[in-house]
């Protein structure tokens, strides 16, 4: 069961304004781009080496979760973060692709142009 500080909003309550406000910060946008590979990522690791303090990263993870972009899965002492990709794609079609595309080129690990979870290549 999630603690209150791990709670995320129902996808029906997520607004475009909340999502865009959350990803307006460059570090939070980079977190979303990293999570776009569809895999859960531990909250600790070199993939989060953005040159900020751990407490600052905690703030960014919380902001993304409260905006409805991510979910945190707690298993014992391990916390992993994952993008709510399927839910967000259904609510805001094309938004995650737009956020993970740089100058018209998909970022590595995004659905378009890379294998999805079923092994098929994106169109």
Automatic annotation (TrEMBL):
CDD domains: HTH_ARSR (cd00090)
Pfam (any one): HTH_5
Bias (Basic and acidic residues) ranges: 114-123
InterPro entries for the chain: ArsR-like_HTH, HTH_ArsR_DNA-bd_dom, WH-like_DNA-bd_sf, WH_DNA-bd_sf
Chain residue ranges for the region called Disordered: 99-123
All residue ranges annotated as the HTH arsR-type domain in the record: 8-103
Superkingdom, natural source: Bacteria
Annotated protein name in UniProt: ArsR/SmtB family transcription factor
Organism name: Phytohabitans kaempferiae
């Amino acid at each position: 069961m999630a603690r209150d500080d791990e709670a995320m909003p129902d996808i029906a309550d997520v607004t475009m304004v909340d999502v865009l406000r959350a990803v307006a910060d460059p570090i939070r946008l980079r977190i979303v781009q990293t999570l776009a590979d569809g895999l859960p990522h531990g909250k600790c690791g070199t993939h989060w080496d953005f040159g900020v303090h751990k407490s600052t990263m905690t703030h960014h993870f919380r902001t993304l979760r409260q905006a409805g972009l991510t979910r945190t899965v707690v298993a014992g002492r391990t916390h992993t973060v994952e993008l709510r990709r399927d839910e967000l794609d259904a609510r805001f079609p094309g938004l995650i692709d737009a956020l993970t595309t740089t100058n018209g080129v998909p970022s590595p690990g995004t659905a378009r142009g890379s294998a999805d979870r079923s092994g098929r290549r994106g169109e």
